[in-house]
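Annex B, item 7. Sequence and structure tokens for protein A, then protein B.
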Amino acid sequence: MKSTTEKYSTLIKAKAKKFGFQNCGISKAGFLESDAAALEKWLKNDYHGKMSYMENHFDKRLDPTVLVEGSRSVISLSYNYFPDEKLPSLNAFKISKYAYGEDYHVIIKEILQEMVAELKEEIGDFECRVFTDSAPILERSWARKSGIGWVGKNANLITKQSGSFYFLAEIICDLELIEDHETTDHCGTCTKCIEACPTNAIISDKIIDGSKCISYATIELKNEIPESFTNKMEDWMFGCDICQDVCPWNRFSSPHLQERFKPNALLKTYQKEDWKELTQELFSEIFRKSPVKRTKFAGLERNIAFLSNKE
């Protein structure tokens, strides 16, 4: 007979599949000792640029039991966002695929809450919190620990069967569950992502200088874009997918089935000249529920102006 721990672990993975998650892995909650020194060094090197929030809650980032008192397990999940068609790039500014549709924070959190409600109906009440890029959690570290994938040279989590175009999410709970094991690294000698990055943001295997990243410059940075990005942005006005697009493992990416991730119709038709005429009203209409609203109209306008001036 299966133990309660086994039954709960199997049930959680079945529910994850039912609710549309690609992968589900389980880790024992505790201090991420192997990640502490690496995170400290990354911060000391100022690779986080102006993202000062990365310096906060150091203990919570490394130990979910500090974030969620009494937690015993971290359930890591991945949710596909690879589109069935890319937005046109000819004579158009580019948007990262994850931002084509509605805000994933809202969508995935809703799915997680429904999933947890069903689990509680079958298991009984248990303490938990759900997250998706919404708290100081080292999501990739937990996903790696749970065997969902390995961390590639571009610091993205990669899965053999489905590449890397997916969001990560967590359920941190007080259930005692069976932990999974890490998978092996399958990047080998490939350096396509390092060679393709136009700003040399990939310093070395798995280490990114965030301050050189196009995604950082177009989303996180609130100041003027540094001149060092001149003629290196490759028309990205929000985010960047270059290091993922060239990754050989992403040939296994398959289209998502989430209707709410589909792009606004205007995104399929807008060309550079249209974007240059963007107004606050149009921005609010096109990106009302989109992750692009994170950069605000002023930020997107700045990005478009920077790209336009350097053409």
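Protein B:
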Amino acid sequence: MENILIFATFIVLIGFTITHQPSWAKLQTKSREDWILDSVGLLVQGLLIPILQIAVVYQLYRYFLPLPQGCLHLPHVATFLLSFIWVDYLYYWNHRCLHSRWFWSLHQVHHTVTDMDVLGTSRNCLWTSFLIIYLWIHAFFLYLLNDSTGYLIGVSLTAALDLWRHSQLAIAPQSWLFRFLSPWLILPQDHAWHHASDSGSRNYGANLKIWDKLHGTYYNCDAPPASLGIPTTLTLTQKLLYPVIPISFNDVTD
């Protein structure tokens, strides 16, 4: 049931991209290299990571954690909030770490996206997904929770919002929906500024704006940035396989 939300969101956003003339025009100019990066990223994030969570990470917790499986009894509302709010805060700091000088070389590929495009949501080098907290924290709570229904709904909603904020389906600033969502939810407009060419050191949040506002990294502007993406001289194999394929210092653009 929870996966239906993610799949339906992806299909709706793909449909919008195809039927929205500016988005369709940009999609037609996508390079072969970008198609490969985006396809591999979606495959890794959408298929490989869920399999690893259940087949590997969950089993590691099962064998090595001193706590018994299903020992945490919480109501559905509490487990939903645990996923949608608390894990969101952990992701905020996880994302900031990926922008640090220690991990930027692994994350920079995500910022080569030059147009907000739902297909580029999971663009990254192959190893970046192992550094994203979702792989480890979701399996951890699925192991501990006696009933994970509310938690999984939160996970699915977070994933759906991730697809949406990487798309061009922005809400008009004059609409009532924008006035309702804008004070608290990260919108496509907000995330576009995270991908702006001049700086990505803002709007790190996934679901909620409060974390950026609390830590001074929030930037508010309803107008889109002049340009998106960072320049890079990395080859396709470097973008996919770093650090197996080394990157020189001059290749790394922060």
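Comment on protein B: The chain has one domain: 2-251.
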